[in-house]
Design brief:
This protein has helices spanning 2-22, 126-129, 152-155; strands at residues 30-40, 46-57, 66-71, 74-77, 87-95, 98-106, 111-114, 117-122, 131-138, 143-151, 156-158, 164-166, 170-172. The chain is of the alpha+beta class. The chain has one domain (26-172). The longest helix is centred in the N-terminal third of the chain and has 21 residues, at 2-22.
Length: 173
């Protein structure tokens, strides 16, 4: 009788091991996300923004919740991204989840060209903390594109001394 009980316990343990080894771990699913950029019109000839890195926040964890995705770093003329034109800015694979926030880390080559004259475009705290956009979008599980509208018309402000500042207005379309 002891041999039968021992055999049954051994079989049950073996079946449990096989069952758990074969079960899927849904927390490891990943989604490829593409970040695209477009713009609304403004009365200027160029609005150049130096984007160096795109970071995606997918969880509340302030340290492990961020992922740097492959970024096509460079200076982007936002005015070339109007009337249905957009560009692929970054692509990467992140855990399938909600995208909570996107951050653009900026370089120092930001400018605006008005009436043939190019002015530096300052971005208060843009180079330290980057441009942040709250997203809170559930990813679809395989491939997801996020189209970000960088509204230059609402984002550019001329100061009293004639310089220009960028206080970004970003929207998910």
């Amino acid at each position: 009788m002891k041999k039968i009980v021992s055999s049954l316990l051994l079989c049950a343990a073996l079946l449990a091991t096989v069952f758990f080894a074969c079960s899927k771990d849904n927390s490891q699913k990943r989604t490829t996300v593409k970040v695209r950029l477009t713009d609304n019109p403004i009365n200027a000839e160029e609005v150049n923004v130096d984007i160096q890195q795109v970071r995606v926040k997918f969880s509340e964890d302030s340290i492990n919740g961020w992922t740097d995705i492959t970024t096509y770093a460079g200076v982007y003329n936002l005015l070339g991204l109007q009337n249905g034109v957009d560009t692929l800015l970054a692509v990467g694979t992140i855990p399938t989840n909600f995208v909570k926030e996107i951050r653009f880390v900026l370089g120092s080559n930001n400018s605006i060209k008005v009436a043939g004259i190019t002015y530096p475009l300052t971005i208060p705290s843009g180079s330290e903390s980057g441009l942040k956009l709250k997203v809170n979008k559930k990813l679809n599980g395989t491939l997801d594109s996020l189209l970000i509208d960088f509204d230059a018309a609402l984002s550019i402000h001329q100061t009293g001394n004639g310089s220009y500042q960028l206080k970004p207005v970003l929207k998910i379309k």
